[in-house]
Amino acid sequence: MHIKAIVSAAALSVALGFGGVVYAQDALPTMIGEQQLTPADAERVKVYCEDLQNAENQAEGAEATDVDAPATEEAGGAGETAAVGEVDMDLITLEACTEAGFIMAP
Description:
By secondary structure, this protein is mostly helical.
């Protein structure tokens, strides 16, 4: 009977310990590069990072399949200034998104 009490206490401790780790995975980063993010800005930056990654993936796919195609600039290209709240979106790069944890490296 004593072993069952020890095992159940250990199992309960482990289960409670993992709860915080799982909850922390859902939290968005609060900084990207040197910029502080609010929760609303973090959501927008996450979407922006995903868009950067998708554009990069499409550019790599286009280069691999259609080398002789003329280059065209998409609407909302990198040349436009995009500001969200206090975050300067022009300073956000694909590498900064990866380092901050908004996206996974390919």
